[in-house]
Design goal:
The chain is an alpha/beta fold. Helices cover 41% and strands 17% of the residues. The protein has helices spanning 4-9, 35-47, 58-67, 87-95, 100-104, 116-125, 137-144; strands spanning 27-31, 51-55, 75-79, 106-111, 129-132. The chain has a 5-stranded parallel β-sheet, sandwiched between helices.
């Protein structure tokens, strides 16, 4: 994994550089099975000006990304623990896609767990970064490299 070395050096502050973007033109796929967590995350993102779409499990997220046009989603916020298909399995499937857009799409883990081993596991499975729930805009923008 291209993020593995960086993660092991900075396990508590994984940062993947991403071009600064205009929030109003940025579309995020939020993947979360908890209705309350989804509502909080969507509300937080929309207040910051981001456009959002929702998926309730990893299987639905993989299908939505695979069916979308290249560049449709700017990135994905993916819960780790979900029924049907968890976030780690979903990101592995995305990384094995035949489409370059899907393979390289930024997917950031969302989790209530932020221990070093949890972050490393996310990165080793193909996540681009790892955020603690509830998602805070400052933390998200740090992950995206916007300062």
């Amino acid at each position: 994994m291209k993020y593995q070395d960086e993660c092991e050096k900075k396990a508590n502050s994984v940062i993947v550089k991403y071009d600064k973007m205009d929030n109003s033109t940025c579309r995020i796929l939020v993947v979360e099975d908890s209705p309350l967590n989804m509502e909080i995350t969507i509300d937080t993102l929309q207040r910051a000006g981001y456009e959002t779409e929702e998926a309730v499990n990893g299987k639905q997220a993989v299908e939505m990304v695979e069916q979308s046009g290249d560049g449709y989603y700017d990135f994905v916020l993916m819960d780790i623990q979900m029924p049907v298909m968890d976030g780690l399995t979903a990101v592995k499937q995305m990384r094995n896609s035949q489409r370059e857009y899907v393979k390289n799409l930024m997917v950031i883990a969302m989790s209530a767990y932020a221990q070093e081993e949890d972050i490393l596991k996310s990165i080793h499975c193909g996540m681009s970064g790892h955020l603690l729930k509830p998602v805070r805009i400052e933390s998200l923008e740090k992950e995206l490299g916007n300062r």
